[in-house]
């Protein structure tokens, strides 16, 4: 079996949370002899205690069980502790249990807020509301025993000294979802409480091939450098970090052998965007086109340092607005070539037989639907090669020769694509029926239509706030009170009352009365006049909404970059 990368200091796996009026006390209850942690509800300061404070009639605590501390965020006047209330074991990775977070809890440490100014209180209320959005973050996973941020190959290559470090010290910062939130705990040297969390996906299954039992695991690790939602995070930043960058690793265990293949996806690596304006497909805008080659070069240099050679697969349409982006991508990367991509293979002794020395980078416009179909096909092909190398498959044998295994493999990749898509667009992946069934189906097409409409709504009317919450969690913005940071309640004019549900209801009402009047025309021609009036009002409202789309769009309000 592969050698396990275990840290020298164990993390607490179960704790009791005591909620006193003036402090939170976190007591390890997993059999360890660790000291309880006290967190002040006044200012968020932390200290270790010799024991849990005594209760009294004036200090009656609320008690609950928690399964980890995700971190702490400091806003304008208060601090907020984030803990795991519920978890679900979803499988194992290299022999260690993997858990999915099913419930987060934000614990305010803001008693000092009562001494703050009125302006600070209003801004604090707005920002703390964003943390409630963060409580619903999808696809968070962790392990108490192994580093989920590292691929099997990178875990294998860790030195003996690195394996003794706490898990957060071993972690790959790009994929450490709570990297920024852990800073306060790190400063207080609270290693047993420092739980690394990854956002992405974790899927696995077991199947029989003859007498052999094969286990296949598929992991997604989402990068936090340019994390965000579909229309609010596009392209790259000037440093070459791209939106929707996800590392996918397919791991196979069989007869003591471990085989791994890593693929990556990410937005086209130059500066481009789509301004949300209520249209179904906003216009693509290329920003500073003269900088595209330099930004792309920074991106691919970073990939080469981390993965070796890079084979870029561009699935963007060659016509229309997408065509302009595809052409710019091709021109910016024409000097980048690679054909050196292999997979990792370890024998039953944990010895490396083959090493992956490159990576396939796939993208479409969203890096979701077409990308997942393509990556699943690459994963299928490479798994067949690995199984032949191990000796399980004959020379011409394929996965679809084993129906149960084939079905499980399709579902594995379809669920993988859905998880990644939900985090970026708000809906499951489109074309999921092709991944699950190998062909398009009528039900799949109808489902895609519904999800496309849902994406339109989320992109225009809820993802702006979600983007604010993401930027807040990852420390991409600093908090301050300034003249230009006005809470929405203070904004005057049309923005106070304008909203998409209101606009939609007005349009539908006008459409309804237009139809009702038309039905009465055969009895009274005067209804033709009323129908014309209602139709005109409906068109006018729709045109107004289109022309003033930026008013109705729920757009981000954070604006101060963290330096």
């Amino acid at each position: 079996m592969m050698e396990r990368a275990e840290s020298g200091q164990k993390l607490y796996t179960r704790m009791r949370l005591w909620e006193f009026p003036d402090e939170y006390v976190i007591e390890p209850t997993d059999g360890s002899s660790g000291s309880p942690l006290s967190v002040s509800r006044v200012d968020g300061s932390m200290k270790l205690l010799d024991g849990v404070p005594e209760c009294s009639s004036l200090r009656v605590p609320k008690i609950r069980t928690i399964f980890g501390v995700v971190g702490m965020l400091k806003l304008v006047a208060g601090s907020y502790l984030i803990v795991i209330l519920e978890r679900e074991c979803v499988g194992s990775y290299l022999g260690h249990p993997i858990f999915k977070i099913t419930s987060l809890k934000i614990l305010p440490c803001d008693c000092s807020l009562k001494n703050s100014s009125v302006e600070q209180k209003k801004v604090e209320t707005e920002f703390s509301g964003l943390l409630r959005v963060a409580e619903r973050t999808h696809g968070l996973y962790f392990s108490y025993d192994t580093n989920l941020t590292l691929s099997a190959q990178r875990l294998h290559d860790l030195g003996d000294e690195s394996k003794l470090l706490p898990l957060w010290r071993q972690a790959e910062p790009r994929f450490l979802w709570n990297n920024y939130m852990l800073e306060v705990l790190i400063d207080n040297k609270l290693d047993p409480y420092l739980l690394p969390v990854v956002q992405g996906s974790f899927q696995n299954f077991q199947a029989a091939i003859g007498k052999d039992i094969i286990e296949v695991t598929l992991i997604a690790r989402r990068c936090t450098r340019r994390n965000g939602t579909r229309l609010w995070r596009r392209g790259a930043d000037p440093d070459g970090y791209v939106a929707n960058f996800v590392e996918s690793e397919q791991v196979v265990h069989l007869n003591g052998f471990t085989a791994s293949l890593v693929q990556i996806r990410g937005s086209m690596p130059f500066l481009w965007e789509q301004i949300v304006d209520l249209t179904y497909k906003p216009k693509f805008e290329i920003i500073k086109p003269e900088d595209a080659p330099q930004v792309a070069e920074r991106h691919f240099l970073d990939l080469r340092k981390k993965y070796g050679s890079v084979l870029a697969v561009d699935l963007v349409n060659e016509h229309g607005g997408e065509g302009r982006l595809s052409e710019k991508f091709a021109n910016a990367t024409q000097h980048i070539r690679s054909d050196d991509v292999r997979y990792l293979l370890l024998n039953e002794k944990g010895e490396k037989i083959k090493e992956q020395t490159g990576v396939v980078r796939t993208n479409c416009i969203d890096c979701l639907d077409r990308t997942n179909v393509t990556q699943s096909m690459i994963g299928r092909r490479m798994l067949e090669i690995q199984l032949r190398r191990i000796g399980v498959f004959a020379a011409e044998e394929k996965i679809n020769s084993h129906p149960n295994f084939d079905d499980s493999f399709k579902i594995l990749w379809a669920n993988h694509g859905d998880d990644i898509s939900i985090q970026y667009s708000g809906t499951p992946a489109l074309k999921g029926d092709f991944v699950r069934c190998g062909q398009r189906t009528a039900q799949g097409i109808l489902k895609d239509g519904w999800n496309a409409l849902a994406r339109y709504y989320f992109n225009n009317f809820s993802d702006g706030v979600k983007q604010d919450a993401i930027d807040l969690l990852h420390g991409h913005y600093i908090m301050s009170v300034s003249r230009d940071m006005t809470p929405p309640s203070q904004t005057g004019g049309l923005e106070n009352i304008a909203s998409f549900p209101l606009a939609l209801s007005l349009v539908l009402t006008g459409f309804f009365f237009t139809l009702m009047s038309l039905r009465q025309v055969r009895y009274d021609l005067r209804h033709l006049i009323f129908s014309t009036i209602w139709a005109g009002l409906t068109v006018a409202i729709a045109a107004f909404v289109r022309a003033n789309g930026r008013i109705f769009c729920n757009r981000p309000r954070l604006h101060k970059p963290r330096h």
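The chain is about 35% helix and 25% strand. Confidence is low (pLDDT under 50) at residues 1-7, 483-498.
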